[in-house]
């Protein structure tokens, strides 16, 4: 059983823990570097990326996170978590840092202030339509060569799901809809990654 952490600095941690357990993982909250050492993969939840960045510095876990990602730890970031996994961001606050790992530019609050949140069907990784919930969501502005686009909005054709090797990111929140397919996809990625090592 893969041991998967959920970064528990801020955001909807509990929902990801239960979605991961539904998908067959041993899921644990991760707040401190010592807890990060205990997991083989990590989910970075939705929430607020500026707060998450500041708390990551306070808890002295930002550098350990960068190191684990560099070493190839599988990770999945949803919404604010997608921002945290982006190598470059637009619309961040002054000095805002990310963990990085995915060669992409992510635009914060991209769908516009007037549309705080909305739901839309998107095609995910060739697995059919998925009901996606967007909450002050980012979109992916551009991606590098090694990034695979897994999902786009039907309206507007915006990139909202990507993968680069062991790293997965979505603009939306599958942990809020009770549709387990994205978490199942990630747990399968982690299983394969473990077998290949
Ligand atoms: N707008 C938030 C941010 O910049 C992300 C919103 C979310 O995670 N639901 O971090």
Structural commentary:
By secondary structure, this protein is an alpha/beta fold. It has 6 helices and 12 strands. It has helices at 13-22, 33-36, 49-58, 62-70, 80-85, 181-196, and strands spanning 3-7, 26-30, 41-44, 75-78, 86-90, 102-107, 117-124, 129-135, 139-143, 148-153, 159-164, 167-170. The strands form 2 sheets. A 9-stranded mixed β-sheet has the order 2-1-3-4-12-11-10-7-8. A 3-stranded mixed β-sheet has the order 5-6-9. Strand 7 (117-124) and strand 8 form a beta hairpin. The longest helix is centred in the C-terminal third of the chain and has 16 residues, at 181-196. Glutamine is lined by residues 46-49, 79-80, 83, 108-109, 135-136. In the presence of PdxS, forms a dodecamer of heterodimers. Only shows activity in the heterodimer. Its EC number is 4.3.3.6, 3.5.1.2. GO terms for molecular function: glutaminase activity; pyridoxal 5'-phosphate synthase (glutamine hydrolysing) activity.
């Amino acid at each position: 059983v893969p041991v998967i952490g959920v970064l528990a600095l801020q955001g909807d941690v509990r929902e990801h823990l239960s979605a991961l357990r539904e998908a067959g993982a041993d899921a644990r909250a991760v707040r401190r570097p010592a807890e990060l050492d205990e997991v083989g993969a990590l989910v970075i939840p939705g929430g607020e990326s500026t707060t998450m960045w500041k708390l990551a510095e306070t808890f002295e876990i930002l550098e350990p996170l960068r190191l684990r990602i560099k070493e190839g730890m599988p990770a999945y970031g949803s919404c604010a978590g997608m921002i945290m996994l982006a190598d470059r961001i637009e619309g961040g606050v002054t000095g805002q840092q990310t963990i990085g790992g995915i060669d992409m530019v992510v635009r914060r609050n991209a769908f516009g202030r007037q549309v705080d949140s909305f739901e839309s069907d998107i095609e995910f990784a060739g697995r059919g339509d998925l009901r996606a919930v967007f909450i002050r969501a980012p979109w992916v502005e551009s991606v590098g060569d090694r990034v695979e686009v897994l999902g786009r909005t039907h309206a507007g054709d915006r990139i909202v799901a990507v993968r680069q090797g062991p790293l997965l990111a979505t603009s939306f929140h599958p942990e809020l809809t009770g549709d387990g397919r994205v978490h199942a996809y990630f747990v399968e990625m982690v299983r394969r990654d473990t077998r290949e090592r």
